[in-house]
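User: Here's a structure from my thesis project, written as structure tokens. My advisor, Dr. K., wants to see whether a designed sequence matches the one we expressed. Can you design one independently, without my sequence as a hint?
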């Protein structure tokens, strides 16, 4: 670790106690942690988090308000995004995942690089307001990642992959779902129910496909895993931010 990361960890220990970030430190030990076979491609697996691929969106008091407000706003969100797809297509861009870039996977970002994307407020004001009020202002969103509208064009396939870690969790609001769409996590295939949320741990291998005849649209939000603590979150932000800075400088 860099001196900056070490200093940040020391500050967290001083405020919250010497054992407050023990799980983060164990995650970084040589050899890593034991993990499920379908998590092997993830970079980091923090010990002590439930190794559960699919989660009940309403099971966690911290996340339930996000789920409830997004589902309540579904009709307005769908109307706004349908209009934007027709009249403001330039606001969408090819999605750049850390592994790939896909032309048939279009994205509109509402939150990125640790901040709300102000331009998206005029495009989808309902989603922007809900996101700000119940995820950003409450610090439930993981600032290391993002929130975006994810539109898969007909025939698009997101190949099986693991995301980088298990200490954040992915929430999907099903905005506009044609027949023939599916998502598979750790070998379990599900379909989106329009107006409802799905919640899953994307450190497990997952894939998605649109075999329908029109675009599939979801709103994706990267939230802190509800079993992580405040000191752990501070340490993880310092860790990942420091590593990203090193990679940019290198």
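Assistant: Designed independently from the structure alone:
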């Amino acid at each position: 670790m860099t001196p900056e990361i070490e200093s940040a960890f020391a500050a967290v220990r001083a405020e919250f106690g010497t054992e407050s970030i023990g799980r983060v430190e164990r995650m970084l030990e040589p050899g890593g942690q034991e993990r499920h076979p379908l998590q092997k491609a993830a970079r980091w697996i923090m010990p002590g988090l439930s190794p559960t691929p699919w989660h009940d969106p309403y099971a966690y008091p911290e996340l339930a308000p996000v789920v409830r407000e997004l589902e309540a706003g579904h009709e307005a969100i769908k109307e706004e995004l349908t209009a934007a797809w027709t009249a403001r297509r330039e606001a969408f861009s090819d999605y750049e995942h850390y592994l790939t870039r896909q032309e048939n996977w279009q994205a509109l970002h509402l939150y990125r690089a640790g901040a709300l994307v102000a331009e998206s407020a005029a495009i989808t004001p309902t989603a922007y307001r809900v996101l700000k009020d119940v995820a950003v202002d409450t610090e439930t969103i993981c600032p290391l990642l993002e929130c975006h509208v994810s539109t898969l064009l007909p025939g698009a396939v997101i190949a099986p992959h693991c995301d980088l870690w298990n200490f954040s969790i992915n929430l999907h609001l099903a905005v506009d779902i044609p027949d023939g769409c599916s998502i598979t996590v750790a070998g379990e295939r599900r379909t989106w129910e329009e107006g409802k949320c799905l919640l899953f741990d994307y450190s497990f291998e997952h894939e998605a496909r649109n075999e329908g005849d029109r675009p599939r649209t979801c709103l994706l939000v990267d939230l802190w895993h509800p079993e992580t603590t405040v000191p752990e979150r501070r340490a993880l932000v310092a860790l990942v931010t420091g590593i990203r800075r090193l990679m940019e400088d290198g």
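When you compare it with your expressed construct, this may help: The first strand starts at residue 54 and ends at 55.
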